[in-house]
Amino acid sequence: MSSRWYPLYQRGNPQLRVFLPNFWMKIVRTPNQQPGNVVCFEVSHQMTKYDIRQYLEKIYKLPVVAVRDRIAMGRFKREERNGYIIKEEDSKLAYVTFPKEVKFTFPDLFPEENETKKNLKDDEKSLDQAKDRFKEFCNRNSKRRGLPGWYSI
Description:
single chain; alpha+beta; 4-stranded antiparallel sheet; 6 strands; 20% strand
């Protein structure tokens, strides 16, 4: 986490001072299905419910009804080489409830994947057709002269 130092006071004319908080918020998908007006954020550990509410209302001008937060424990992993255990960092999750009129849906960031899935289905169809045509070709040409397996009577 970066720490911001307040600018030093210098005598003279009043200076323009902007104080930015050390807070950050990241929107995340929840493993469980949530109503359309509930959004989950991963937030800085120092943020309180009131900070989260003020952050969304003052900066983004979003109407907030309620804020619930919890600390999610990080996963444990075993190091493959040496065998010791590593714990990932804990994260603080905030579930923000907006009014019923506000609905949030995640944007489709990669629409090409949906198109590629359609193209894969088309490719599978053409692959099946190619296999069928190859079988027909093999059956048609299995009794030709000059090929191994052809015997004249």
